[in-house]
Amino acid sequence: DAKTTQPNSMESNEEEPVHLPCNHSTISGTDYIHWYRQLPSQGPEYVIHGLTSNVNNRMASLAIAEDRKSSTLILHRATLRDAAVYYCILKSGGSNYKLTFGKGTLLTVNP
Amino acid sequence: DAGVIQSPRHEVTEMGQEVTLRCKPISGHNSLFWYRQTMMRGLELLIYFNNNVPIDDSGMPEDRFSAKMPNASFSTLKIQPSEPRDSAVYFCASSFSGEQFFGPGTRLTVL
Predict the structure, then answer these.
(1) Cys-Cys with A69: which of A21, A25, A86, B61 at CB 3.0–4.6 Å?
(2) Considering only alpha carbons, which residue of chain A is nearest residue B6?
């Protein structure tokens, strides 16, 4: 599996935007970029995914570099509920559903 | 839908005892995953099923671990005999089109 690199931790203030970076320089052409997050004492939850184009949904936006070697998860207005570990994961296309979780980024949101 | 259901939520047992963890996936999902999470090793995929058939069990630590999926609505993960190093949170997840939905987890403590 291609690897991803994320900062161990980041801090943000409530109601400010947050940009969570992820490097994946060995990404292959068929790898999708997935983001999951894990709130304290809960299972991970899906946030967003993309292949080449930027993506938006109700939770976040995903900005993908033109060369696809990096991406950024954007939370437009952080809330206290967004405090979690955020995982950037590369997943092969096709029928292989395997996800390999790294250490992720622990996001702290200050009131 | 109630989401992925896991039972029990907490299990405390003594070394050498058999432990059975249970999972009910979301109705209509055709893939099921068992993960284990510890502070030291993070979130690890143990095994995953597609259409009730085990596809990849390379993450199963050893022969003491076994998993079954007798039908589309039920799966078990069994540890026999259990050891203190098996203490962890075990998550079950299900999927239909790629996005995985995680259950609340079972916190296992082996004394």
Answers:
(1) A25
(2) A43
